[in-house]
Amino acid sequence: MAALPLATAEVCDANSHLITGGELRALQPIFQIYGRRQVFAGPIVTLKVFEDEINGCDIGVRALASHPMKANKKGMGEKHVPVTIAGTRICDGEWLYADTDGILVSRTELIV
Predict the structure, then answer these.
(1) How far apart are CA 32 and CA 49, in angstroms?
(2) What Å distances lie between residue 95 and 28, 39, 77, 104, CA to CA?
(3) Is residue 1 part of a domain?
(4) What is the pLDDT of residues 81-98, one digit of tens each?
(5) Which residues contact 19 (CB under 8 A, 6 or more apart)?
(6) What is the DSSP letter of 48?
(7) β partners of residue 78
(8) How many domains does the chain have?
(9) pLDDT tens by residue, 41-71
């Protein structure tokens, strides 16, 4: 994780050419905040997990929602699988920038 995450608004302002070219994408504002970190940035590792007891963990997680029905937990999840959320494909190795304003995904690490 990057030591000092960039504010998503600043990232957008400084990289409008990457937005136009599709290298930087803003995800739809449909995510809930889980975990103790509200602001974070770093390389993406995609995970498919069935765990809802993460709010006490010192990590940043954005997810669509929790679900009240019991999961069929098999003691395993999936890692390094591309995911598509609200029409945006997200892959391992891309960079994520998240704060209370939203989530950005970039093909490469960005510096403002």
Answers:
(1) 16
(2) 16, 14, 22, 8
(3) no
(4) 888 888 899 998 999 999
(5) 12, 25, 26
(6) E
(7) 48
(8) 1
(9) 889 887 666 666 666 777 777 877 766 666 6
